[in-house]
Amino acid sequence: MNTDTPILEIQNLSRRYGKLDAVNGLSLNVRAGKCYGFFGRNGAGKTTTIKCLLNLLRPDSGKVRVFGIDPQKDEVAVKSRLAYVPDVVAFYPWMTVRDTLEYLASFRRHWNGGIEADLLGRFRLDPSQKASHLSKGQRTQLALIGAICPEPELLVLDEPTSGLDPIVRREFIQTVIGAYQSGDPGRRTVFVSTHLISEFEGLIDEFTIIDQGRELLTMEADAARDRFRKIRARFVQPPGQLELAGALSVKQNGRELELLADGNSERLMDELKSRAPEDLQCESLSLEEIFVASDVLKKAVV
Known about the structure:
alpha/beta, 10 helices, six-stranded mixed beta sheet
């Protein structure tokens, strides 16, 4: 594969369920070695998009490529190089944890037994326990082990930490995914759809936010944090109505003021300083705050 070829490429993707446009003209590119965040509310079209990428659903129109390959024409070539953890996980109920992992390994050319043993210990999974007796969180843990051990080029995760307790969730995100990518820097790619944006904050390199099947915002994470900032000011007396040209939004509550800046935080800070606030602070928005404010931010980047 050409090194310039995106790992994932979507152009003008559309997929309808009856009269409902689940995905409507979506385009995005994911480069090798990146952790790419795919954010949106429930029903925004994230899972439908992922299923189109994996040839689990056929698009109504548009282009989908994985490793530069059409997944409809060469599904085996695509799926042999990736691992997928869906939002709802199920296994053969009569199999034990050990049986399940051996079954999954039988489809792979490579399987890292050391990682398997380490993750079974981290997750405290009993290899002799039957899949039918696993909780939702344990089934997710088992699916994650099955996805990591082949050390694929691409890891596709759809709400991968659903049902995990906070300690296991943090361990998986910070340690397991981080170790997976660092095992072959620049080559291993993660495409993750999640609501727990704050917990992936340190891993996400680039992201797309979608709503009703359409792209709202696509940016590199560092560029977004540099560009969009939150400014808070507190005055001795209520400042009255302020006209702050260039602010994306302004919220005023008595003596306190909060506004969102779009690359112009220094100018807005200078303007506020001229009004002698008793306290003035400026900080970057987190990715979760960017997601919450995406409707406002979209107007700034159109």
